[in-house]
Amino acid sequence: MVTSATWERRALFRNENWAKLFVRNLFECRAKGYALHEFVVMPDHFHAIISPIIALEHAVQFIKGGFSYRAKKELESNMEVWQRSFSDHRIHDRVDYEKHVVYVRENPVRARLVNRPEEYLFCSGFQGTNWLQCRSG
To answer: pLDDT class for 130, splitting at 50, 70, 90?
Structure first.
């Protein structure tokens, strides 16, 4: 599982356009370096459970760097997006995986953004509109 925060913990992803672009980038970068299992985009950070097929640092660079590039181009933003580092936790077994899935999906509930995980649009646990809608625009 990887986690990274926005620069100075700014709530950039409260803006739906920013959050949707991040999710599209997360899905589109999969072919370059990782399998995506679970994710959540919080207002000032993200968590993703990925299986990298390249070096983890490079996979995260596709996620963070790819988004920064697209934010400058598509959202016309020149601000710093990310804190420099990221944290990671290697999933050890099925029990550990399930524990982290719950952690990822419950993050918006703990932050009081929604009452139930399946209500939060920017999470792999979302049970509403198909993710293809978010990915395509």
So the answer is: low
* 87 burial level (CB within 10 Å; 0-12, 13-18, 19+): exposed
Mean per-residue pLDDT for 63-78? Answer: 96
**Which residues, in sequence order, are CB contacts of 82 under 8 Å at separation 6+?**
4, 5, 6, 7, 64, 68
Residue 14: pLDDT over 90? yes
CB of 42 closer than 8 Å to CB of 114: no
Where do the structural domains in the chain lie, given as residue ranges? 2-136
pTM of the predicted structure, to 2 decimals: 0.90
How far apart are the C-alpha atoms of 81 and 67, rounded to whole Å? 9
Q: What was the pLDDT predicted at 127?
A: 78
What CATH number matches the domain at 2-136, 2.20.25.90, 1.10.287.1700, 1.10.10.10, 3.30.70.1290?
3.30.70.1290
Q: 3-state class of 126 per DSSP?
A: coil
Tokens representing 122 are 């920017």
Q: What backbone phi and psi angles, to 5 degrees, belong to 131? A: -65, -20
